[in-house]
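Ticket #4471: complex job returned nothing on first submit. Input attached below:
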Amino acid sequence: MNAIVKVENVGMVFETKKGRFVALKDVNLQIRSGEVVSLIGHSGCGKSTLLNLIAGLTLPTSGVMLCSGREIAGPGPERAVVFQNHSLLPWLSCFENVYLAVERVFGAKEGKARLKERTAAALEMVHMTHAAQKMPHEISGGMKQRIGIARAFAMEPKILLMDEPFGALDALTRASLQDELIGVMEKTGATVVMVTHDVDEAVLLSDRVVMMTNGPAATIGEILEVKLDKPRDRLALAHDPHFAECRGAILEFLYQKQMKKAA
Amino acid sequence: MNTATLTSALGAIVPEAAPAHPASAARCEATPAKESDMASSTPTQTAAPAPTAEPGTPFGERAGQFFRAVIPPCLGFAFVIGLWALVAMSSADFPGPAKTFDAAVTLFSDPFYRNGPNDQGIGWNILSSLKRVAVGFGVAALVGIPMGFIIGRFAFMNSMLEPIISILRPVSPLAWLPIGLMVFKAADPASTWTIFICSIWPMILNTAQGVQRVPQDYLNVARVLNLSEFKIITKILLPSVLPYMLTGIRLSIGTAWLVIVAAEMLTGGVGIGFWVWDEWNNLKVEHIIIAIFVIGIVGLLLEQLLLLIARRFSYGTN
Ligand SMILES: Nc1ncnc2c1ncn2[C@@H]1O[C@H](COP(=O)(O)OP(=O)(O)OP(=O)(O)O)[C@@H](O)[C@H]1O
Ligand SMILES: [Mg+2]
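Support reply: We reran it on our side without changes. The output follows.
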């Protein structure tokens, strides 16, 4: 098995004003190349913390994180991140936002014309060519998120990390972006790690669903393999028995084994 | 003497115009937001008169709109002028609106004459005051903005310089005038020096605030893309600090225009402040009233100019 990301006995402790807070403890996870993995769990369990560790935005307090056999010492363009709040730079047009990333990754080897082609292709992939020259505040939330995804894919990263990429969107927009993402992942064969709150989304998009226990000292509770053929079609899956089985397993984990007491 | 009371009164106004350090947090934060509000409200404002041009709009409605926009300000001016005329009638020395208006007409019919160093047209006086403000202010920007960046970026520099700035900032810039006179041995650079002093604090503090408030999200983008330091400065820091910087610039130009009048009263020479004092010595009170209006209008224009620039550089809320 060729694991592109290895998380070994990783723990994360935050020093807070009230003392040490153990967010993650003994997390072990291997992610294969080309695989789509979702992280699911109750709010505050540490999903973002784990994703930020893989991104290298924060460093673990114990354990080892490897990417392609090398220790993760900081963020880098081979691990692109789609942020929950899109994080487009408001003073750059959509095109320029994507171009900034493309230029950084390929600028040393390729000419301007080629970089522009790449940018245009990335925008085309998320069907945003028409908005290329618009400023981020001129487009809707769903469109911004698509630009954010285009920016990440345009970097041709080894791994794409997404923290609740559709969390702030309404159900209809969410569904159409999920379909779009399925298409893009199919085309690029990308390795994806995605945080989500949504059980259906996790089953629909991923090869494996990683379920996390409640914090503090959260860890991985169960890992579910989703053995559904790809590309997947949301309408066909609605009546698929394996889909229902996966869904049931996740719901059972979240609402029976990890039942969260009302705060 | 009159000068003394005037200066101390100014001293009380100046610190209020410049942001107080801890309290400025809210203020500095609010100001760029306000500007972007204004920017976003501009289209609606410009859109509003559009229906006026439509042929379908009844004349009565158009007239109503016009009167609603014009009548209240006119009433305000009429009220003040009326009050002024009443006060002037009951006083022997105080010139009324009519006399002042006549004086203004003669004054502005020849604004650019020169009869020796102490008798020049009002145009020259305004221009020399503006020149001092421009120079003092420009140097303050050259020094203050980079310093703001350094203070905002490096916590060490922040804790090193913050106490010094906190002590110096509330001092009326006129207190620095004698030092300027001593160092430069001339009146003209000394008043420019006071402008420099009063302009530099808002510039440093607002720029530093802006640098400290660059959203973490944008910095994370920079980290994930692994941008070069040059790209971080040009693509992320400068654009996101710019609105704060412009707020600092606007605050300081307002203060600078307040201070120049007082500084020139003390130093003499050519300038609107000196002119006011000179006309007081000549007992031409109507000229003093004209000067008050002129100073107010120039200050308003400066402020509007900077607002215009700030609007140009504010990005829509994201
Ligand atoms: N920088 C930090 N300092 C202190 N505590 C932190 C920090 N970041 C996260 N935590 C704590 O770690 C825990 C996990 O946070 P995390 O953001 O990873 O949760 P999450 O699973 O992503 O939640 P959500 O689904 O609501 O986004 C929380 O209890 C949080 O309070
Ligand atoms: Mg989270």
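The mean pLDDT of chain A is 89. Closing as resolved unless it happens again.
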